[in-house]
Amino acid sequence: MKTADAPTHSKILILDFGSQYTQVIARRVRECQVYSEIVRFDAPAAEIAALKPNGLILSGGPASVYDKGAPQIDPEIFSLGAPVLGICYGLMLIAHHLGGKVVFTGRREYGAGGLHIKNRSELFAGLGSQLDVWNSHGDEVTALPKGFHVVGTTEGCDFAAVEDPQRKLYGLQFHPEVVHTPRGREILQNFVYHICHCAMDWTMGSFIEEACVRIRRQVGDQKVVLGLSGGVDSSVTAALLHKAIGGQLTCIFVNNGLLRAREEEIVQRVFGENFHVQLKYVDASERFLSKLRGVTDPEQKRKIIGNEFIRVFEDAIVNLAKTDHGSPITDHKFRFLAQGTLYPDVIESVSIGGNPAQVIKSHHNVGGLPEKMHFELVEPLRQLFKDEVRQVGLQLGLPKEIVYRQPFPGPGLAVRILGEVTPERLSILREADTIVQSEMEAADWYYKVWQSFAVLLPVQSVGVMGDQRTYENTVVLRIVESQDGMTADWVRVPYELLARISSRISNEVKHVNRVCYDISSKPPSTIEWE
Ligand code: XMP
């Protein structure tokens, strides 16, 4: 189990029983400015106690408590003295383990409902007697354990909110963490502040201070190298490390020739000129483009780019060592490699009765460096969610154009050029992409969507320009909204915006005479075309 190395602040632990909402619970708690951490459902009580949580939340989950192999909790957890809030499956476990009764009624309660508060409870303090709530459950409690009483009921459920205030055990049949329970946030606040007595001490300012101390403690006077991609995560990691250790940090920025227009300029300006980070700019465009010559298969492109990146990065490190007179040329002078790993990447997701996720695309990130380089990792953002990373970035003084930029895939424009990647086709796509970005920004849509970009198809079609017949390329416009990139939908942007982008691309970008709008969601499509 991963634990936070910061014992000074309040902490809520969330035991994960496989709910799709577990991360949402963790984020809701953090929005209360209280640190939260997700742990596996089967964490032993002694391990939980050692983490000294102020309170525990048991998540929902897809199982029924009576299923064979249903995830079980260490029942000692109920005797630790820390308040416990069971949500949905979490409530079933409380009832099941403490002597109540749970049945599978065969009737699923799903969707919006109304909760009638029958008895006063600290959990619902200040919330009135009637609440809109969101249900999603199959099992139902039919008898309460000793010491418990009903706080609230819904149409279909007599035990929708229950508690044993003596032992500080609480259970909700519905989901307070989702937006469809509009006052769920206040329920969680009541639990976190008034029942668990947490302080609002998880702020990004305090995180930065603590992270700097931790980084200095970890690296001492050693040097750290970081692959800077220009994306939010690596940029914030760079700014944070720079604050913590200044000149001990060297960033390597690789231009793989597959970047958007002016990308290398922006990164060099922000980090080199504004932050005075030691920045090694490596222009490896030629190397990448020659390796990609003639390649059309999407997975092959990704593999080539991933492998080449590692070689280029490795070479850059060795070259940096050569310029450092103190180090032997055969070795590198960096003991540490920093990475912008975030919390969602490190949470061990529990798959209950599910299949391990299939590899749809082999993702490339600025990581995966060869084992033989023997780096120790520095991952200062491991505890943070994306929105927290953005706040940290802003507090460290990074500009909005970096902090709120849309995600950009590691293999860059190569996966947005279907067919062969050539300098000519790159230049067509870059021009089209620049128009998409600038029109999205001008219309105030850029920051509202997950991604907006152009894709170049290996398809020519007939057009007419002036009195001339043309036979030119097709550009597809992809604008999607998404929470995390796992699912996505195309955005219903105004027709006028589509019209402007389309006419600018066909008028200004040579060799394009047709623009299409991609109206596919994910699934079944993916966001990138390759
Ligand atoms: P797909 O195309 O799989 O993309 O629906 C989901 C999200 O991931 C981004 N993406 C990548 N990000 N390295 C990355 O760092 C990659 O190789 C990569 N491929 C796709 C994509 O832009 C979208 O936001």
Description of the molecule:
The chain has 530 residues and is an alpha/beta fold. It folds into three domains: 11-195, 3-Layer(aba) Sandwich (Rossmann fold); 204-403, HUPs (Rossmann fold, 3-Layer(aba) Sandwich); 422-517, 2-Layer Sandwich (GMP Synthetase, Chain A, domain 3). It has 14 helices and 18 strands. The strands form three sheets. Strands 2-1-3-4-9-8-7-5-6 form a nine-stranded mixed beta sheet, sandwiched between helices. A five-stranded parallel beta sheet has the order 12-11-10-13-14, sandwiched between helices. Strands 15, 16, 17 and 18 form a four-stranded mixed beta sheet that branches. Helix 10 (343-346) links the parallel strand 13 and strand 14 (376-378). The longest helix has 25 residues, at 298-322. It is globular. The two termini are 35 Å apart. The mean pLDDT is 92. Xanthosine-5'-monophosphate is lined by residues 361, 363-365, 407, 409-411, 451, 485, 522, 526-528.
